[in-house]
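Figure 2 data, in text form.
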Amino acid sequence: MRPELNFYGANHIKSPNLDKLSTESLVFNRAYCNVPVCGASRASLMTGARPTRNRFLDAHIKKDEDYPDAVSLPQLLKKNGYRTISNGKIYHHNQDDAKAWDEIWQAAPLFNFAIAENQKIAKNTKRGLPFEAAEVHDSLYRDGKVTLKVINDLRKLKGSNQPFFLTMGLSRPHLPFTAPKKYWDLYDRNTIKLPESYVQPTSTPKQAFHNFGELRQYENIPTKGDLPDDLAKELIHGYYACVSYIDAQIGLVLDELKRLELDDDTIVILWGDHGWNLGDHKLWCKHVTFEKALRTPLMIKVPGKTMGTKTEAITEYIDVYPSLAELVGVEIPNTVEGKSFVPIINGKKSDKNWAVCKWKDAVTLIKDDLFYTEWIDDKGLAYARMLFDHKTDPLELDNLAEKSAYQEKVQALSLELRAKWGKDFLK
């Protein structure tokens, strides 16, 4: 999910429920995932641990295999008396970190498609079509099923005196962009434009780009080259529809939380596992260290403490774990590498102005307005670099890393990157 919502300054996606939640939350304008792929990002967030050269590498990793000694957030809360429930997609693998949960639930069947013909196509191909607009009820798709389960859980938990850690793992707006037609109808495709950054400058290292193989696994997507403009706009349209669809599902859960009179005693946190390219740099999906794949939506509602404030403090996803642990008063394990943002919730100024993100060989230091990336080998030596100054180049089109005027800055950022990427990074 991209931070492309009204409370982030955009005005073209209809998300009234998220907009309302933002007025009751602390909204992070500069939140970044530590690794731009689902499985690795989720494992990193749930353990509060950084990705390394050999840990949390891709979509398919397991927390239990990559970092079995880490006490995950749900595991910590379970040990401290919380009922922990995993609904929908939390980890990439349903049974990963299984001992941390009192209950693991996944929607069945896992409908990506509602139209029979599209289901048939999906069954006979690798992934089926990249989008669908169907005249169906919200609950037919998997996210609608997750919503009903979460609402039912809230009703059960209302009658319990046990504190709870309840999750709502929505699949959209991931591909395929499938949503009830009424959400597609909220948008006029004729008004949708390709991004301003629909270009791949020659000054940018070739390692920064990819063939967006994830999207190309879907039917009717060209196997190489740029997408036709009409198809690109149809994909963007589908993305918008999916955001509006999950906004409605989140609204149903928040309404039930209030109806049950649990809202004044429940922390609500919203996050997406990573950003997403919608034609930015002529790329689709994630798997890069450009800002569109790294910057994410993050907001937290803490009853009695948050009231719609926004912060420009740079925040990493590994900061979520220690923050929630501090808010509920449990001791933070020493495997957690993040920094609590509770002082920001309490109105204090953050002294953290940096984040470190990683994808494959690329490691990025975000510091103030600078985005500095190095592609490194197994010894930690750089073989390509890029540097963008968002103050003058927010679209990341002018790589400064090889310009003579910036060599002193590049050397300083390179040293700082190594100082901050984590003590076990090269192990």
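Caption note: The chain has one domain: 6-348.
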